[in-house]
Amino acid sequence: MNVGRSAFVAACVLFTALCSVPFHAQAVATTPAIAAPTFEVATIKPTEPMHRNRGFHVSGNRVNIENQDVTTLIVIGYSVHPKQIVNAPDWFDTARWTIDGVADKEGKLSVADVQVMVQKLLADRFGLKFKREQREIPVYALTVAKGGPKLETSKADPNALPNQNGNGKGRMQFQNTTMTTFLLGMQSEFDRPLVDQTGLDGHYDFSLRWTPDTAPAGDADAPPGMFTAIQEQLGLKVSPVKAPANVLVIESAEKPSAN
Hints:
Blueprint: H1 5-11, H2 13-17, E1 39-46, E2 55-59, E3 62-69, H3 70-78, E4 85-86, H4 91-94, E5 96-103, H5 111-125, E6 129-144, E7 152-153, E8 163-166, E9 171-177, H6 179-186, E10 194-196, E11 204-209, H7 226-234, E12 236-252
Parallel strand pairs: 4-12, 6-10
Antiparallel strand pairs: 1-5, 2-3, 3-5, 6-12, 7-11, 8-9, 9-11
Helix pairs in contact: 1-3, 3-5
C-alpha cells in the first residue's frame, strides 16, 4: 500500500473539524460511553474526480466526511499510522467517498464518538474485516531526554479537552495535552508511527517551533528541525527504532454501493 503524506495529513483534519481553531486536537475518551453511538442514517457517494476539498465536518450530531479515502477513515477510526495498515487493496488510497450522516444520539459528538461511528460504518458499509497482530516494525520512540522534560504542568481541568493549534508552518501551541494526544496530533509530521515511551502521564502546556523539511534553506534565524526542536524545547527525544507495534491486517473489504 502506497500511502502519501497528504492522505495522513487529511486524516488529522478530523481534530480540526471538531473545534474552532486550526490544528486543534482532542483526546479519545478514556471512559467508555454507556451506549456507543452509531449512524442512525448515512449516505455514501463516490466523490467526483474534480472535487478538491477534503475534510471532516461535525456539527452537533451531524457528520459530513468529505472526499476521504478508506485509509484515512481507518487512520481516524482506529488511531493508527498508515504504516500500521497491512494488506490493504490499492483502492483504499485511490477511491474517495463523501459520507453524510446523523448519529443516533443527541448533542455534540466527541472524537471518541466519531471514531466509534467510523469503525461501525467501515464494518457495515465497506465490509471491512481485519485481524490485529503485533509485528516488529520501524517506529519512532518518544523518550525523556537527559536532563528531564521541559513541560509545564497544565492548570486546566484535566477532564477538559486538550487544545493544539498552530500556523501549519512549524509552530504549534499545546494546552492541557497528554503525551498520547501530543503524539496523535504530530503523527502526520513523521514517516513512521510514534510510540510513547516517556512514562509521563500528566497534562501539560507547551509550545514547539521547528523548521519543516520542505522549508527553503538560508534563514539563519530559523528554528531547528523537528527532532532537535523536540529535544531542545521539550526535553524529549525521538529515536528511530524497531519495536513491537499493533498492526491491522486487512482480510476483506468492498466498495459500498452509492445511495
